[in-house]
Write a structure and sequence with these properties.
With 802 residues, the protein is an alpha+beta fold. It has 13 helices and 39 strands. Helix 10 (455-469) packs antiparallel against helix 13 (533-546) and helix 12 packs across helix 13 (533-546). The radius of gyration is 28 Å and the shape is globular. The structure holds zinc ion. The site of zinc ion has 6 residues, from loops. Zinc ion binds at residues 158, 283-284, 287, 383, 434.
């Protein structure tokens, strides 16, 4: 075994990185980061001493597939690792001055006997603050309050109610900003670092007690980036008939590959015409469970194929693309931050965004992402960077905001990579996983866009998924406004049905057992306990992928190896662009090209595609009023005073219940019902819940610091209801401040908006590359259009329509 050749030495932080060439004559597929390996077949190593306390960055570049790990020589513990599908590796970790490190290169596969390595060290500034980071619940009684809160540039979570939003305060400056804007809040987690330490201890106990979990992989702890990369690669090696690992079309800002796997019969035959379910995690770095769930889903499909009849059938009928970590740069910073105690320095564990620095002020543009002077503030929010309504409310034009939208639609390589994938494949179904909030969200992200024509089908599919994970099934704007999110681009432009899952009730990465095992399988404290959890929600989405009533099909005959392609090029406007100075600019026009091919196996074909008409131009859901809205109903306060009730489920405590009836046709047609109560003292806190005849809570309003509550029901079902009024808090020592009364008011539905229809251009290309026929095909969701002889030259430019 040849020793690693040292090319030059970087001895200080400011010097060039040290360069080496690692060599191995044989490839051995194995885990490079589990432990230091003897210098044997397929392994080459270098030993270095850390010259500073801070960050070590080791890289590989070259052909073939080499992996990389950095170990602490004394303990043998892994400090940093990278195990992508190629030899493009970046491993970051934290080290102490004088620490002895083993740099280990492993030749996993491919023909390259050698690979170039670099090792660099960067000092990390010590913490200059020890202010605790808090999670607080900010009161936002109106939509205007929510929008005002979003504009403060604070770290907003995806957990909100109709009247509150949870926000992370990274110190006194953030609290001062809230105070100046006259918001009130309640502290939910007084010291997030302490909570994370508690979670870590819980994770360690769980790992000690369980050698295997009930998850398909058996994992008992959160994966690191190299685990994901290695496991995807191993699935491809172990199940080549079922799994194709691949890298997305663009590298991340820092140059990492974004790794994906495709699970299907004959997985390399990507143009087999089947519908695709794309399941993604970690657009946001700190949302670790979102990647875990997606990875477990991959194991479920691979292990279930051939042993479980349902999985076998569904895998045969569909293609599954799985991207556990869309944002590997951010994820590895968040995931590696804890053990080093870096939390107080730059709060990297709570990093949300990617690593883009070009929009930062010049003093913050240098340095690698994990050692940037702007800390976690660097970067773009990838789930505000898609073109769908980009630049509007619910996203920030300020570089340091946690919801920074980026300099332009698709300015980030990570979102461009997902766009390429979706634009070139029949992604008929999509889930983008996030934490937290126990939500199944569908477009639109802002109320003013209005629901799509297919709102009822979309809502019903969401309800099917939510019946398994127990989450609330609501349009995304019901949480708070967002623009530039994944499905607000993918759905409106491709017609593929997409949802955002907000996994779990209250933390970005809770203890592994609750956030991953219980939420995925529907166990223990999960909202979907006993209903199958996210595992069954994903299966329900895969059932919908296999069900052509949720997409469109083009059928016909074509000769063997002819290639059919559906394509469409169009422009879509963004939102009017909100500028940092508060002015509003013109919308931008974004050009998209969708181009999906099907290589025909000969004879009859069935090409599963999305509908030809973009939902963006197809009109909007609405109803023509069939009757005037109902007249207002007074809500009198009953006699007596209910006791204070602060229970998590207020229906288990004391309350007042006032019955009312929502009428229906023929006498009334209600698009919206608003249930309202009021009282006199803003220090008093009454809360309002609306319950239907089955006992389900269908509306709520529970703010405080004001003197009224409004719960809104959209398209309320006619029937008997109860307004539940809860005495949450009375001012001590003051006379009882009873609510003085209320009413239910009604307004009519908004009428539908009629749009236009669009065609796919369908071409048939012969084996020699020449175009045999061109068709314009209009096909709606749930329809099948038969082209007959699709490659018959006499049918050039035929318009096929149902
Ligand atoms: Zn998220």
């Amino acid at each position: 075994m040849a020793a690693a050749a040292l090319i030059s030495v970087g001895s200080t932080a400011s010097a060039q990185p040290a360069r080496y060439v690692l060599q191995a004559r044989h490839a051995v597929p194995r885990n490079c980061f589990a432990a230091p390996l003897p210098r044997e077949r397929g392994v080459d190593t270098v030993t270095v001493t850390a010259p500073v306390t801070g960050l070590v960055r080791a890289t590989l570049a070259g052909d073939g597939d080499w992996d990389l790990a950095v170990f602490d020589v004394e303990t043998g513990k892994v400090v940093a690792a990278s195990a992508g599908l190629r030899s493009n590796e970046i491993a970051d970790g934290f080290v102490a001055e004088g620490q002895e490190l083993l740099i280990q290169g492993c030749r996993y596969g491919g023909q390259a006997r050698q690979v170039r390595a670099t090792v660099d060290f960067l000092p990390v500034d010590p913490a200059d603050t020890t202010e605790p980071v808090q999670v607080v619940r900010v009161n936002t009684p109106t939509r205007a309050d929510k929008n005002r809160l979003l504009e403060l540039g604070l770290d907003i979570t995806e957990h909100a109610t109709q009247t509150t939003v949870e926000v992370i305060l990274h110190g006194e400056d953030d609290a001062a900003r809230l105070r100046q804007a006259r918001f009130t809040w309640e502290v939910q987690i007084p010291d997030l670092a302490a909570r994370i330490a508690t979670n870590q201890a819980a994770d360690e106990r769980y790992q000690e007690r369980h050698t295997r979990s009930a998850l398909p992989s058996g994992r008992t702890s959160y994966r690191r980036l190299a685990d994901y990369e290695y496991e995807m690669k191993e699935l491809g090696r172990r199940f080549p008939h079922l799994v194709r690992p691949f890298v997305l079309s663009e590298r991340t800002v820092e140059g990492r590959d974004i790794t994906a796997i495709e699970i299907a019969l004959n997985p390399g035959n990507i143009h087999d015409g089947k519908p695709v379910f794309l399941n993604m995690g970690v657009h946001h770095a700190r949302e670790w469970p979102s990647a875990e769930h997606v990875m477990e889903w991959a194991y479920d499909l691979v292990y279930g194929y051939g042993s479980d009849p349902r999985t076998t059938r569904l895998v045969a009928e569909t293609r599954n693309i799985i991207v556990p970590v869309v944002n590997p740069d951010g994820f590895t910073i968040s995931r590696e931050a804890v053990p080093i105690g870096d939390f107080s320095t730059f709060d990297y564990e709570m990093k949300r965004k990617n690593c883009q620095a070009t929009d930062s002020p010049s003093q913050y543009q240098g340095g690698v992402c994990a050692d940037n002077p702007a800390g976690r503030l660097r970067g773009t929010d990838l789930n505000r960077n898609y073109a769908g309504f980009w630049g509007g409310p619910g996203a920030s034009p300020i570089w340091s905001s946690d919801i920074y939208r980026g300099s332009a639609p698709f300015s980030e390589p990570e979102t461009r990579a997902i766009r390429d994938l979706i634009s070139t494949r029949s992604v008929t179904n999509l889930i983008s996983n996030h934490t937290y909030g126990n939500l199944v969200l569908r477009p639109p992200g802002v109320m003013s866009v209005r629901p799509p024509v297919e709102e009822e089908l979309y809502e019903a599919l969401g309800a099917r998924l939510a019946s398994h994970n127990g989450y609330a099934n609501i349009p995304s704007w019901g949480l708070y406004d967002t623009t530039g999110s994944t499905e607000d681009w993918s759905f409106w432009n491709t017609g593929g049905l997409g949802f955002t899952f907000e996994i779990g009730p209250d933390q970005f990465h809770p203890p592994f057992e609750s956030g991953v095992v219980n939420e995925y399988l529907g166990l223990g404290d999960a909202a979907g306990a006993g209903q199958g959890g996210n595992r069954e929600a994903y299966f329900a989405m895969l059932e919908a992928t296999a069900d052509s009533s949720y997409h469109s099909v083009i059928t016909g005959q074509a000769p063997r190896d002819a290639v059919l392609t559906v394509s469409k090029t169009f422009q879509t406007p963004t939102s009017p662009v909100l500028n940092p100075d508060g002015t509003v600019g013109e919308p931008l026009l974004v050009t998209d090209e969708l181009r999906v091919s099907h290589r025909v196996s000969g004879g009859q074909f069935a090409f599963h595609v999305n509908p030809s008409t973009r939902p963006y131009v197809a009109g909007r859901y609405g109803r023509e009023p069939q009757a005037p809205p109902q007249r207002p109903i007074p809500l009198p306060n009953p006699d007596g005073q209910p006791a204070e009730n602060t229970l998590a489920n207020p229906l288990e405590g004391d309350y007042e219940a006032i019955p009312f009836t929502i009428a229906g046709l023929p006498e009334a047609d209600n698009g919206f019902a608003t249930i309202h109560i009021e009282w006199s003292n803003p220090e008093t806190d009454w809360d309002l819940y609306v319950v239907d005849a089955s006992g389900t809570v269908v509306g709520r309003s529970a703010s405080y610091g004001d003197t009224d509550e409004d719960a809104v029901l959209v398209d309320p079902v006619p029937g008997e209801y109860l307004a539940i009024v809860v005495n949450y808090d009375q001012v001590d020592g003051a006379p009882f401040d009873d609510w003085s009364g209320g009413e239910v008011t009604f307004s009519g539905p908004e009428p539908p908006l009629v749009g236009v229809r669009e065609a796919w251009m369908v071409t048939c290309q012969r084996r020699d590359g020449s175009i045999a026929a061109v068709h314009q095909v209009i096909v709606d969701r749930g329809q099948t259009v038969d082209l007959g002889n699709a490659c018959d030259a006499s049918r050039r430019m035929a318009v096929t329509e149902i």
